Every structure is written in C-alpha cells, then in structure tokens.
Amino acid sequence: MAQATPYERSYERYLDGSPEAERRLFERLARELMKVQDVNKRAAGAGSLARTQHAKAALGVENARLRFHDDLPDALRRGFAEPGAEYPATVRISNASGIRQADGAADLRGIAVRVGVTAEESHDLLATNWPVSHARDAREFVAFAKAMAGARTPPRAAFGLFVKLPLAVGPATATRMRRNVRAATRHAVTSLAGETYWSRGAILWGDAGPVRYLLRPAGGAAPGPRSDRRDPNHLRRDLEHRLASADVSFDLCVQRYVDETRTPIEDGATDWREAVAPALPVARLTIPSQDLDTAEARAAAGRVEELAFNPWYTTDDFRPLGNLNRARKAAYEASAAHRGGLRFRSGEPLRNRILSAPAGAAFRLLNRYLPWHRLGTRASLLNLVFLRKALRRFNLIDTDAHEAPPKPVPVPRPADERLRAARSYDGTHNDLSAPAMGSVGAAFGRNLAPVYRPDLFDTPNPVTVSRQLLHRETFLPATSLNILAAAWIQFQVHDWVNHRRHPAGTKTVEVPLPGGMSWRNTPSGPAETVMRFAENEGLPVPEGRPPILFGNTASHWWDGSEVYGEDETTARSLRIPDGGAQLRLERGHLPIGQSGVPLSGFTDSWWLGLSVMHTLFAREHNAVCDALRGAYPSMGEESVYQTARLVVSALIAKIHTVEWTPAILATEALDIGLHTNWDGPPDSWLTKLGLWLFDAHALTGIPGTLPDHHGAPYSLTEDFVTVYRMHPLIPDDFELREHHFGQRLETVGFLDINGAAAEGAVRKTGLANTLYSFGIAHPGAITLHNFPRALQAFEREGEVIDLSVVDLVRTRRRGVPRYNDFLAGLHKPRVRRFEDLTEDPETLARLKDVYASVDEVDTMIGLFAENPPTGFGFSDTAFRVFILMATRRLQSDRFLTVDFRPEIYTPLGIDWVQKGGMKSVILRHCPDLAALLPRTATAFAPWRQVPPHPTR
Q1: Per-residue confidence (pLDDT) for residue 145, from 0 to 100
Q2: Cα–Cα distance between 488 and 476 in angstroms, integer?
C-alpha cells in the first residue's frame, strides 16, 4: 500500500469518519446514480442508457496531442510531466446534462481528455466550464442529480430545484446550490472552443502537492462563423467549421495549493481564485484540423462514446483528492458499467416499498405466535416473501476486502468478447463489471456475523458430541425420498463449495480424544490419543480481523463445474481429442484415471452415487451437442461445446430448483414457491395481485429478471455450507437389483462402492440397474443418531477421518455461530431449554450430558435435532438460509437471468432447459426405466418396484 503524502494525511477528511465507512456510503450513492440513469432514460424516451452526466457529445476525437512546455518548472516535473514530452490524447467535449437536449438549453459544458503515456499508463483529465461545483461533497452532488433526474421541461426542473432538492439537503444548502447552478448555466456559450474548463477538484502533482487544473483556450485560434442558436446542434456545427480550417488548442494550467482556507481540498464549491493560486501553463492540448464528417471521423467519435472516463485512471503521482473525487471512482465505474450493460439495477416499485413495511411488520408479529408453515398456502407464500426480504436486508454480509480509500488504476481492459456468450472456466466474468466476483478462489461470504472463539474449539469435545448424538445406531430412513436425492445433493455441493486443505501430514487440526479412546490417523499408523486431520488453508485478512476467511476452490456460480472442471486445462482434457465438443466416454461410461477414479470435473469423495450422476450428465452434454449440430450445421465445435455447457448447467439448476428441493421440502407452499422462482407464479389472480402489491419482481420467474446481488457481492457463504451438511442421507449398505425382473443382484456396503471401486460397480451393474436400485431405496433422514457409520472411519487422501467430527470442528473453527446464536441471527426466538430441542427422553438426556448449557449446542446438532415442519426433510432454521441463498444463486447469475435467452443459448437450448427435467435426462439415456418412474412426483421420490419374476 502506497504511503500517504503529507497533503493526504493533513487535508483529506473522510465522510462518516473512516475510509471504509465512506466507501460504503459511496457504493450507496453509486446505486442512486444508476437510478438517475434509468429515470433519465425513461424521461428521454431513449432506447439505451446514457451517461449519468454529460450525455450529449459535441466532439469525440482520438488524434489530439498533449505536449508539455520546454520550460516546465522543476517543481512540476514528475512522472509523465517532463519538459517537451508529447503524448497522444483522446478528447470528448459535451453538454453536462444527463439528458440529450438542444445545445441552446441552459447547461454546463465539459471536456474529458485521456492522455496515453504507454500501453499500461494513461491519465484522464475531466473538467467543466465553471470554476466551482454546485455541490460541496458527494452527498450534495447525488442529491442534486436525483432531484433533477428526468427534468426535461421547466416545470419539472423547478419542482426538482425548489421541492425535491430542499427536502434532500435542507433549504439553506439548496439555496446555495441553486445560486451556483444558476450562475453557471446562465453563462452564454457561443463556442466550446472558446470556453475555459476547470477541474473543480484537486489532484496530487507528485512532490509539488495538491493542484487544481484548468484548460484555457490558447490564443491565435481562428474564429468560426456565427452559429445559429436555433440549431439544436449549433455547438457541434461550430467545432466542425473551426476544425475544418485550423487546429483547436487549449493550455493546460495548474493552480497550486496554498492553504486549507483559500484553496480547500474537501470543498468542491469553493473557487481557487487566481489572485491566490495563479494558473501556471504547463502543457498544450491540440486538436488537429480535420473533417469531422468523414466515415473515419464518425467511427472514431463512436469509439470515444463507448469510453468510460474516470479521474482514477491515472497513477499514484497524480492521485485525485477530496471526497467528490473519491466518490467519482465508485460512481463513474457504476455508471459506465450500467450504461454498457455490465451492471444492472432492479428498481422496487413505489407501491411495494410503501405496502411492504406494514405488511412485513404484521407478519413478524404474527410469527411470534404462529410460524409461517402453519398458515394457509397463500398466506405462507406471502409470509415467505417478507421473510426473504428481511434475510436479504440483514443476512448478506460482504467479506471481500475492498480498497478504502480508493487507489488509482490503469484503464481496465475490456472483457474477452467470447465471455459475453459463454461461461468462463473459473467463474470469472459472470458479473462483467466485477470480473473476479464468485470465481475460483473468491472468499466465502457470511449470512451471520462470525463468532471466533478458539477457547471453545474443543468444548464440548467434538468426539463426544459425535459419539453421543450423531452415531448411527439404527438406520432411520427418509421414506418420501430415494437415494438419488442423496447422490444429487453431493453432486451439487461439489459444484458449489470446496475449502482447500493443506496437504495431509503438513498442517493439521488436533482433536483430543476422551479418556480411554484411541484413533489411527493413517491406515497403518499407530494408535494415538488425538484425532488429526488436515487444516483448511485460510485467506489473508485485514489487521484486527479474526483469521477465518476462506477461499472457495470451486466457483461460487451454478456452472456445472463438477462435470466440466474449474480450469481450462481440466475442461479441455475431458473433451474428445482435437477440440471436439463432446466429453470423452468409453462405451457410455466415464474414462478411468490412473487412480482408478473416473475422469470428471470434480472427483473427491467419489462413490457409486456420484458415478451415476456424472455419467448421466456427461451423456446429457453429448446429447445436447448432437442436437445442436443437427439444428445448426454451421456452428463450430467450440460454440457447440460452450452452448452445451450453458444448457446442461441451466438444466441442473432448474432440476435442483423445481424437482429436488420440492421433493425434500414436500409442502404445497414450497412447491408453488419454487416453481415460481423458475417459471413465475401460478395463473391465479389472487396470487398475482398479492405479488403485484408486495413483490412485483416475483411476477416473473427469475430467468426473466435482471441480475441482482441485493447489496453484497455474490458469493456462497460459510453458513450455507453448514446447512448443507447432509451426510445422514447416505445409507451404510445398498441392495442392487435388476430392473426388468426385480431380481436382487447383490448387497454392498458403502466402502464396497467407494473410490476406485465405484466405477467397477456401475459398469458391472449397469447404469439403468443402478438408477433403479437407487430409485426404489430410501436415503437416511437428516436427524440425530443417523450419521453413516462408514463415514466415521473414512479413508481420504492418506488420512483416516471421522467425518462427523470433522464437520463439527470445521463449523466451529470457521466462526459459524453456535445454534442459539444461529437462530437469533436468522430472526427466530432463542431456545431456552434442552426440552425445546427434543421430546425424546434418551436424546434429551444425552444433550444435557454433553452440553453444559443450551447456548453451547453446536449448530449442526441443533439443526438435526429440530422437529421440522410437516413434509420437510430438514429443519426450518436451515430452510431460512436456503430460501435466501437458493434464489440468490439464480438471481445473481447473468446466465440464469439477463442472458438466459435464445441469442445466447440458441432457441433449441432454451427449449431443452424449459421442457427438460430429471426424468427426461434419465429416459434419454435409460429409456427402459419409463414405466418405473413416479407418475405424478419427481424422479427423487420413490420409484415403482418390480416384483421379483417368479420364474427367475
């Protein structure tokens, strides 16, 4: 981090008291300016968004030059500012309004100059033809922009200036701002070439300290003909006439800082008078004579219009100063991204904002006495709407390390155009305005503030907790589901989350064993009195924060990475040779790697259930490829592959949303709600009226909306990882049966179909028989006393681990709050007695024996102990994280919202997703199973069993 100069330390004052608090304020203000863009677009009847300010350009050229004077004073020689140095420059001159209007309208004018020094270094200079800003600080600037948004007519402008502005900033400030604006806009402009343009904010100039700069017309320019002010583009015409016969030049001058009273840095509304701070000419900007009406000139002007100028596109030596400038980085970035279709804003209708507050309060009061799941279907759905609103407001915690204060940066390189229509391999560029968001390595977020208590890592002993409360003594089945549901969720989790571990035997966690116990930490190792397993690799954290920030080695997006891999090398290795679109298969099965485990995108914790899912969706990818080739013969193999990736990933997301989740949360309200997430609400006028009044965004399925991160950068969270600990779904043994005649083939234990043994089992049994065997058998219930025994002595990467202990320890060490704090953080009443957790006498006795108080109860134990709502396969508390994050995974994803469209997916691809589902995937590759699938339920519900054939 660059050391602050004396000027920054002495004279910069951060709004709200600190750089980080100011950054958060500026992010809110940036979102407000995006709203201004939308209002201006509607008012102008425009087909696309314009700049928040300076929407109408009079000139855009790429062939200007900036040359520093040979006699540049020694004190001002710094960086690119050297005597005689000359650089190419891009220039844009414009009207200041955010609405394109006639040049004769009362307005300010501005100039933006990009000075190109090297391929990596440039400097953006922005100035306006009035020496002071109407706003002292960023808050006033945004308040004025909001007040004047859409003000195309005098009555609207008057309403903004005399009603909206005083309400926002107060009468006295509004009066001063109106006076500044009136003085600036009454200034008659006959030629943009004859105007002086002031920076109005300070920048550093190396060791010379703060300066303001201005661009003043250079003497000797030929006057243009008198323009016709009735022409709405007369200022453009004037420049055309002048440049047709002569250069247009400006002197770049700097005013040096004197003192905080006469030349303040933080106050943009105070003039640095030349009598106090003389304007010293340092360079000349020359726009060469040219014909602006040629195809070449028009093309150049079009490219300039696409540029995003920002005073922070510079170097540390020329860093902008003052809060107006600090705000400009976030504001300009947001505005440019919004204008370019890289960042989106979903406005909430006024009726929703007004009506939601009392309705939400009413539901919160009602829920003290009656939980949402005991209400009628429509009331339950509406209750969930307000619960999700509250969760979005209070339970999305940003863990990213943001720069505060802002730092200069080079002009960002444009994204690879191919990534506008295809997912990247590592999850970058899903959000094109924040390319790293949600990518491989990005930090896990939080739904609840972390609680870091190293003194409680082993309290109570996690091994004791596991043995007393998790160990499976008798298999407890989930009778509404089949084992495919268990395989599916592991298949999904491998796409979503993975914490990197230190290599086995390097950096470990040690858990002391209760007295009399021993454990072998490696298959052939000695018996020890501690249980040892690999520690997670953490991410660096800012000073003063606990060391509990972890990166995701998977991408956070729903991008099918478990099938395709998390990097380009892996992805290409899984494809057929010579760049073919299809995935490699050997007679319909995944190829086997050197370890004996198949080659696929993610193969940790491999077992027969994962083999089934990966094989099915590798086949599905190839089927999509074949269909695309047939429908679009001119598509190249790379396009076929990338489109098939999009289709299969979206199909997986849809299956999870409208099939797996309603199967495990089997209630009418949830079935309607989850289908609404994808397809929009049912055709009921009452349901649609309720949504129109309270949550208009839900009137269409999420794929029909714009991306929305709801105020925090998108990521999956540590709390999400915790509630998806569903290992009890896995049985310890499996009966494999033949689907034609119902005959038993064999009974196997989990370890018999784990790791390298899995692929031999699926090839021996056959995919159809394995699917049938899993379809007719139940997984375990997600409850206490039902953790798979096979996973309590499980070999992984040279370690022998008890996965139930690992889950408990990881949750504690990652700072996930204990169960009671978890409840409170998700807006539920705290548990006061152990009796509130369970009515089972044996479990109650064990809880009291293990935990000294109910506040010590581990989150996983509390979630498993809860009595879930009728039809639910897991707890209502876990469900709260689910309803927040399930919609977020869809809503944040560009490829599942704004770019879920035929132009990107192809019409065939959209149709494949919208008409497809788990049943269609199974039947496409195992058509003999058609009569066995449930008629009216999803493929994750129990299938029809074939009675054993009497003659066999």
Answers
A1: 82
A2: 19
Catalytic residue among 494, 556, 621, 709: 494
pTM across the whole model: 0.93
Q: Give pLDDT tens digits for 282-305.
A: 999 999 999 999 999 999 999 999
Indicate the burial class of 447 (C-beta count within 10 angstroms; 0-12, 13-18, 19 or more).
buried
Q: How far lies 487's CA from each of 78, 726, 783, in Å?
A: 63, 11, 18
| CATH fold for domain 6-140+190-339 | Catalase HpII,  Chain A, domain 1 (2.40.180)
- φ, ψ for residue 425, nearest 5 deg: -75, -30
Q: In angstroms, rounded to a whole number, what is the distance separating the alpha carbons of residues 62 and 112?
A: 12
What is the reported pLDDT for 225? Answer: 65
Topology of domain 454-551+726-740+770-888 in CATH is: Myeloperoxidase, subunit C (1.10.640)
**What does the pLDDT read at residue 224?**
60
**Cα(375)–Cα(856) distance, rounded to whole angstroms?**
32
The yes-or-no verdict on residue 108 having pLDDT over 80 is yes
Annotated catalytic, 785? no
Strand partners, 67: 86, 284
What is the predicted pLDDT for the residue at 220?
60
CA distance 541 to 822: 23
**Rounded mean pLDDT of the chain?**
92
- Give the position of tokens 């840095």: 265
Q: What is the pLDDT of residue 709?
A: 95
Domain ranges of the chain: 6-140+190-339, 454-551+726-740+770-888
Taking the C-alpha atoms of residue 64 and residue 57, their distance in angstroms, rounded to an integer, is 16
What is residue 691's predicted lDDT score, i.e. its pLDDT? 83
For residues 545-566, give the mean pLDDT. 95
The average pLDDT across 793-800 equals: 89
Cα 627 to Cα 617: distance, rounded to the nearest angstrom: 15
Reduced to 3 states, what is the DSSP secondary structure of residue 294?
coil
Residue 33 in tokens: 């300016």
Cα–Cα distance measured from residue 660 to residue 889, given in angstroms and rounded to the nearest whole number = 15
